[in-house]
Specification:
It comes from Streptomyces gilvosporeus. Helices cover about 40% and strands about 15% of the residues. A 7-stranded parallel β-sheet has the order 3-2-1-4-5-6-9, with helices on both faces. A two-stranded parallel ribbon has the order 7-11. Strands 8-10 form a two-stranded antiparallel ribbon. The protein is built from 13 helices and 11 strands. By secondary structure, it is α/β, with parallel strands linked by helices. Helix 4 runs parallel beside helix 5. It has a domain of about 180 residues: 3-Layer(aba) Sandwich (Rossmann fold), CATH 3.40.50. The N and C termini lie far apart (about 40 Å). It binds NADP nicotinamide-adenine-dinucleotide phosphate. The site of NADP nicotinamide-adenine-dinucleotide phosphate has 26 residues, from helix 1 and strand 5.
């Protein structure tokens, strides 16, 4: 049995499908099973992971856990991890971030700090572990969807910022291989998982334009306005500012090099952003 946190999310939904295809038994956690729309073959279970009570039955009988900070945040992740140890779970795959570099730089920004803290807890848990350190997610582009649909314009502080957008299905495929770990090769590995090419914000927007068959313009806005637009309950304004400034620093050089982890772990190349844009064209139309 494999327990998937954040099972209705970008990675989780893809991961549940992939694990079922591979013949695994899956327990999919969601706050609302009636709206989850997950395959009937999965055991879909109600769980609000910010509530520490009642975690034991969620993890009982499981061999592996996919832990996603998006499902309740950093604190909940550590509590769930602790419950997994008590329940006898053997292996954890943590959805981490390329921002974690195992250097003092990990203490200098919100994203790295948060993921590094949970990585430390995982290392200390005694479980077998694998980290999936994803680069910028292709799904971040969904944040432009309403604006593209309504105005045909994307407003961004750094149109020339260079990222390596990674498809959620590639993150899920790497996580699935590590969760099943049929070769024993994935314990203790921190995989930096990126897309196959460096693309600027403007280039990503152009790909979306091609996918929907119309021109989409990029309009430059201030860093402050951009931080305001992405701040929210899980991303305080100060952290949003840090993030926008960090994107600014990637205008002159890519944030991260392209990695071959998807191919090494899954045996097939990472999916290009153009494919992601075609698959999500309806979100932007
Ligand atoms: N965006 C990036 O560029 C990036 C890069 C590197 C790493 N990351 C990491 O990836 C994470 C995002 O992964 P994702 O895109 O797959 O997430 P996502 O699509 O936002 O999915 C998160 C899921 O968590 C569930 N959830 C939310 N609150 C919960 C709670 N209190 N208890 C239980 N479940 C809860 C929700 O499902 P229900 O509504 O069904 O409960 C939701 O579908 C980030 O948080 C970050 O840690 C992101």
């Amino acid at each position: 049995m494999i327990v998937v946190t954040g099972a209705t999310g970008n990675i989780g939904r893809s991961l549940v499908g992939r694990l079922l295809q591979d013949g695994a038994q899956v327990r999919a956690l969601t706050r609302d099973p009636s709206r989850a729309g997950l395959p009937a073959e999965a055991e879909t279970v109600r769980a609000d992971l910010t509530d520490a009570s009642g975690l034991a039955p969620l993890l009982g009988g499981a061999e592996a856990l996919f832990l996603n900070l998006a499902a309740g945040g950093e604190r909940s992740a550590v509590v769930v991890l602790d419950a997994a140890v008590k329940a006898g779970v053997r292996r954890v795959v943590l959805n981490s971030s390329v921002a974690v570099t195992d250097s003092p730089a990990d203490e200098t920004n919100f994203i790295a700090r948060m993921h590094a803290a949970v990585e430390r807890a995982v290392r200390a848990s005694g479980l077998e572990w694998t980290f999936v350190r994803g680069s910028n997610y292709a799904t971040n582009a969904l944040g432009w969807a309403a604006s593209i649909r309504e105005t045909g314009v994307v407003r961004d502080a750094h149109p020339g910022a260079q990222g390596v957008p990674v498809h959620e299905a590639d993150l899920a495929d790497v996580a699935a291989v590590a969760l099943l770990d049929r070769t024993g090769a994935h314990a203790g590995q921190a995989y930096v998982v990126t897309g196959p090419e460096v693309l600027t914000v403007a280039e990503q927007v152009a790909e979306i334009g091609r996918a929907v068959g119309r021109e989409v313009r990029v309009e430059r806005i201030s860093e402050d306005a951009a931080a305001e637009a992405i701040a929210g309950p899980h991303l305080p304004k100060a952290a949003a500012r840090e993030l926008i400034a960090m994107f600014g620093s990637t205008v002159d050089r890519p944030a991260w090099p392209v990695s071959d982890a998807v191919e090494r772990v899954t045996g097939r190349p990472a999916r290009p952003f153009a494919q992601w844009a075609r698959e999500h064209a309806a979100d932007f139309s």
